[in-house]
Amino acid sequence: MNKFFILIIVLFLTFAKGRLEIILERCLPKADMENITIKCGLNEVIAIREAFFTSSIIDHQCPFIGNDVDHDDDDDGTSTKTKIKNGQQKLSCTDDLRLTLNSKCSGHPACVVNLRKIHANQCSGYDGWINLKYTCVPAAKMNSYCNVQLTDSFGYVSNPGYPKFYPPYDCKWKIIGYPGQRIEIQILDLSLKEPRFTSNKKLLNNYECTDNLAIVDMNVRRMMLCGETKSNLIEYRSKTNELIIDFHSFEFSPTRGIFFRYTMIDCPTLKPPSNGYMYRNQSYAYYNCYFDYVFEDSGQSSKILFCEYETYWNGTVTRCIAKENTTIESSINIDADDDNEPMVMEKAYALSHRKMGIKSSDHQNDDDDDGPIIIEKIDNFLTNPLTFIIIGIISLCIIFIIIAIIIHSNYRYGSTDISI
């Protein structure tokens, strides 16, 4: 078989409101394990997103990344499963290659890896494919400084010295999105000093992580990672629009350190226009004007905006004006065609801080994110079985009262007829 036919390189363009990433996917046969070359351009470094070997072959076609990939395997990153095909049982093997690729490639502009030599014992005897998914990160999107605030729509962060070493330091990165947004963290590489044994019985397994990475969400430490295992390569989504990544190192270490990617997800919360109100969840926002008011662009009293790609609203927001008012003013456009993401987000942020026209919102802090809370309460109330029971009881009571009034009226009129 021609080598150019079985070597597949696919480019994925991840685009959302000025956010453009080129994600490269390569699929190679096992025969090409000896010399795998990854090379990025000038002032770019490699970020491994996925890397695994699989023997799951469907009609000799390369299985694309993300199709039934299971990383819940053994400590060495290998798993075997029994699959049934055409009525027959067939063993399949998957080998996670991320740790190996990280040690050779992550943070470097180019690398050459011999996977056959390193993974000689994993999935031996199985034929299959090697799947790679990586990004060439430009220097403009890399942050290697400690104790800074990050507000870009997405970016990459590493410790000083990565991937050669990390110094004794306390690094803290505070990631802040717009109100209504959340933050997604993907730990791409984590290579820290192995936890040391201690007699402290308060610690699990008597091991202490002197060098560690902590994820702090809503002032609570959600998890702490240390050492170098594939279980550290996790994804985490924050509960609010702020997240803290805290890296603590006790002494100098020749290991790589940490490398992670962050991105803002969900659309920013937009306050209602004057003479109107709104509520929202993570998928859509519902706007409505007060009685005898309509939106100046559409002439309708309500509209729904949808959050596209967890990033931007798909429409415009204008004032609510009186029906007899025909003056048309320019609207705040936050559609997907705006090429300037900072300007778009500034517009959305300015709209979210416009003074609301309803009394209940005059007492809200501008930094509050009450939209999702309101819609969540409404959804919970409407979907709660107890709500239907209460409504049913109230309806029955009303029916009984109406019947009693009718019976009482008939009895009264009947008594009057008899007396006459």
Which features does this protein show?
420 residues; alpha+beta; Jelly Rolls; 3 domains; 5-stranded mixed beta sheet; disordered N terminus; disordered C terminus; CUB_dom; disulfide bond; serine protease; hydrolase
Detailed description of the structure:
With 420 residues, this protein is α+β, with helices and mostly antiparallel strands. It has three domains: 3-138, Jelly Rolls; 144-265, Sandwich (Jelly Rolls), CATH 2.60.120.290; 276-371, no CATH class. Helix content is 18%, strand content 38%. The strands form eight sheets. The protein has a six-stranded antiparallel beta sheet. A five-stranded mixed beta sheet has the order 9-11-20-13-18, with helices on one face. The protein is elongated and about 95 Å long.
Write the layout of secondary structure elements.
Elements: H1 3-6, E1 8-16, E2 19-29, E3 36-39, E4 44-54, E5 78-85, E6 88-96, H2 98-104, E7 110-113, H3 115-118, E8 129-138, E9 142-143, E10 148-150, E11 154-158, E12 170-176, E13 182-191, E14 196-197, E15 207-208, E16 212-217, E17 220-225, E18 235-237, E19 242-248, E20 257-265, E21 276-280, E22 284-289, E23 293-295, E24 302-308, E25 312-313, E26 316-317, E27 320-322, E28 332-333, H4 341-352, H5 370-383, H6 385-419
Parallel strand pairs: 9-11, 10-12
Antiparallel strand pairs: 1-2, 2-8, 3-7, 4-6, 4-8, 5-6, 11-20, 12-19, 13-18, 13-20, 14-15, 16-17, 16-19, 21-22, 22-24, 23-27, 24-25, 26-28
